[in-house]
């Protein structure tokens, strides 16, 4: 036994304790990045196949809740991560879609054929039918998920953005008042990502048991 005060310190304790804290910190960071990546992956997949993205995202939320609340015994942090994760999926899906289409989308001239508000209780209610003016003159029916918010009327010519891989529906251009909405979506996505990431790390560092 070695020690300089009233409480003796076992040999090697100075080396073992920091190593354990480092392992805990590394483990917490890995789980935090894994959970956050799962949520963002679910949001990205939801822009392509909605139900599949929801399944992936909910699986990430379930893992986070079990880990933080069950294995680490941090109930308050588990609630924060769970609700934060669900909110993150809601904001991240349109943010990922808009970012992807803005980065690699191809502009195509089109005309608005029809705009219909079906007043649904669930899901998108407004739909725009578009016909391309070039090439095969393909017709697309897009919803609010693809930025159909009534900013264009039947007969208007617009420039839509198409996915070069043809996996996602084309995106309609923004209206004059939509720039603020895009900034809010991006800010919410960044903030919720930081919340989920930081709360998971904190819970891992302060885990019980």
List keywords for this structure.
elongated; alpha+beta; 4-stranded antiparallel β-sheet; 209 residues
Question: What does this entry show, briefly?
Answer:
This protein has 209 residues and is an alpha+beta fold. It contains 4 helices and 4 strands; from the N terminus they run αααββββα. Helices cover 54% and strands 14% of the residues.
Strand content: 5-15%
Number of helices: 4
Gyration radius, in Å: 24 Å
Secondary structure: number of strands = 4
Low-confidence stretches: 1-7
Q: Choose one word for the global shape.
A: elongated
- What class do helices, strands and sheet pairing give? alpha+beta
Strand sequence of the main sheet, in spatial order?
Answer: 3-2-1-4
Question: What's the rounded overall pLDDT mean?
Answer: 87
Order of helices and strands: HHHEEEEH
């Amino acid at each position: 036994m070695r020690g300089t005060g009233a409480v003796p310190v076992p040999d090697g304790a100075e080396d073992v304790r920091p190593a354990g804290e480092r392992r805990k910190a590394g483990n917490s960071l890995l789980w935090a990045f894994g959970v956050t990546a799962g949520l963002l992956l679910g949001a990205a997949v939801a822009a392509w196949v909605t139900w599949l993205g929801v399944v992936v995202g909910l699986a990430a939320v379930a893992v986070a809740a079990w880990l933080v609340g069950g294995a680490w015994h941090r109930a308050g942090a588990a609630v924060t991560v769970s609700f934060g994760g669900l909110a993150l999926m809601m904001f991240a899906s349109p943010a990922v879609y808009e970012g992807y289409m803005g980065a690699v989308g191809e502009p195509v001239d089109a005309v608005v054929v029809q705009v219909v508000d079906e007043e649904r209780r669930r899901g998108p209610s407004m739909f725009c039918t578009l016909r391309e003016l070039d090439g095969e003159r393909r017709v697309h029916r897009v919803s609010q998920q693809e930025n159909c918010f009534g900013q264009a009327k039947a007969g208007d010519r617009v420039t839509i953005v198409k996915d070069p891989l043809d996996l996602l529906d084309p995106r309609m251009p923004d209206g004059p008042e939509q720039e603020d909405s895009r900034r809010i979506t991006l800010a919410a996505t960044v903030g919720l990502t930081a919340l989920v990431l930081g709360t998971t790390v904190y819970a891992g560092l302060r885990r019980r048991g």
